[in-house]
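FORM 12-B: Structure-to-Sequence Request
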């Protein structure tokens, strides 16, 4: 599946400027939401596999390699979510000032959590 950076229109107008990826009508998922959820489900499977590896006393290096893969997958999911958030903020902004504020807000989130 190839990802696109074109934001999906949200089904409900936003009243606050929080991360829009997770907002909208309950039960109705945008393409971006589905993509992030699918990534998180794969990571969930990786973590279950890690638990099994530790339970079966697999070599430390094997476990470390899989932990690294799960961590990188989580980072990719985070950056995809943030990219979608920035694209939505830009497409929904009514002015250059609002666009700048939204990009700056996203930058602060990246600095804080990335």
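FORM 12-B RESPONSE
SEQUENCE OUT:
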């Amino acid at each position: 599946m190839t990802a696109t950076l074109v934001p999906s229109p949200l089904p409900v107008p936003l009243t606050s400027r929080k991360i829009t990826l997770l907002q909208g009508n309950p039960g109705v998922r945008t393409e971006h939401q589905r993509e992030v959820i699918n990534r998180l489900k794969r990571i969930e499977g990786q973590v279950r596999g890690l638990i099994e590896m530790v339970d079966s006393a697999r070599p430390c290096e094997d476990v470390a390699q899989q932990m690294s893969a799960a961590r990188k997958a989580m980072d990719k999911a985070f950056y995809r979510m943030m990219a979608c958030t920035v694209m939505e903020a830009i497409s929904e902004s009514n002015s250059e000032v609002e666009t700048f504020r939204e990009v700056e807000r996203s930058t602060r989130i990246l600095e804080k959590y990335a």
